[in-house]
């Protein structure tokens, strides 16, 4: 024991402390945080929006509306892809029971569309009608048919003259409105769709 009269040197104290805190229990390590960059990014974006709302309110509200419209478009696109994937699986399961697999060309899709219409499945009938149009346009070298493509993608790549492109744009808009926009759909509307299709097929490649 050190008496009150004795003094302890600074070097001795530092050496003792270094020895104590070098033990494993005193080793502090900051745990890795793989999501820190995302949280920082969210904070920066949120702060930027707050500054924009105060400094440029007009630009802020235009941007918010544009982002909302983009979000709705993404949801519609995802909904269409999900619906197409579901219907494709259903058709493939039905076709697996057929002894001879038919060629799924425009004629096949129209036959299937009429069968579904007779059964009252108007939405499914409309989808097959559009598929028939896609195959017709593919045969005319206007587009390249592929199951993963959406109607909007076909519209972007379609090589049609201006009247034909305008008619095709009307068909795609009509299709989205009735399948995802909540507009009613019955046999009368399917007749209207057939007329719109004829307006498209009457035109050739641009």
Please characterize this protein's 3D structure:
α2 crosses α3 (57-95). The chain is 69% helix and 0% strand. The model has no long low-confidence stretch (mean pLDDT 81). It has eight helices and no strands.
Topology:
Elements: H1 10-21, H2 36-55, H3 57-95, H4 106-118, H5 122-139, H6 151-157, H7 162-180, H8 187-201
Radius of gyration: 33 Å
SSE string, helix = H, strand = E?
HHHHHHHH
Mean pLDDT score, rounded?
Answer: 81
Largest sheet, in brief, is: none
Helical residues, percent:
55-70%
> What separation lies between the terminal Cα atoms?
102 Å
Measured by DSSP, the beta-strand proportion falls in under 5%
Number of strands: 0
Structural class from helices and strands? mainly alpha
Number of helices: 8
Overall 3D shape:
elongated
Unreliable stretches: none
Summarize the structure.
The protein has 206 residues and is mostly helical. It contains eight helices and no strands. The longest helix is centred in the middle third of the chain and has 39 residues, at 57-95.
Spell out the key features of this protein.
single chain, 206 residues, mainly alpha, 69% helix
């Amino acid at each position: 024991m050190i008496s009150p009269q004795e003094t302890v040197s600074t070097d001795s104290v530092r050496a003792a402390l270094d020895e104590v805190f070098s033990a494993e229990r005193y080793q502090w390590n900051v745990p890795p945080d793989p999501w820190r960059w995302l949280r920082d990014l969210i904070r920066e974006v949120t702060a930027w929006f707050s500054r924009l709302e105060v400094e440029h309110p007009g630009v802020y509200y235009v941007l918010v509306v544009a982002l909302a419209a983009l979000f709705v478009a993404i949801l519609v696109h995802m909904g269409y892809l999900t619906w197409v994937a579901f219907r494709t699986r259903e058709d493939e399961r039905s076709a697996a029971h057929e002894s001879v697999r038919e060629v799924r060309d425009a004629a096949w899709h129209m036959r299937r569309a009429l069968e579904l219409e007779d059964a009252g499945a108007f939405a499914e009938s409309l989808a097959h009608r559009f598929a028939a149009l896609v195959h017709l346009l593919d045969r005319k070298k206007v587009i390249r048919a592929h199951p993963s493509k959406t109607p909007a993608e076909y519209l972007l790549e379609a090589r049609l003259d201006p009247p034909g492109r305008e008619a095709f744009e009307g068909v795609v808009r009509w299709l989205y409105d009735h399948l995802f926009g909540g507009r009613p759909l019955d046999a009368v509307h399917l007749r209207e769709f057939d007329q719109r299709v004829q307006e498209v097929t009457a035109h050739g490649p641009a």
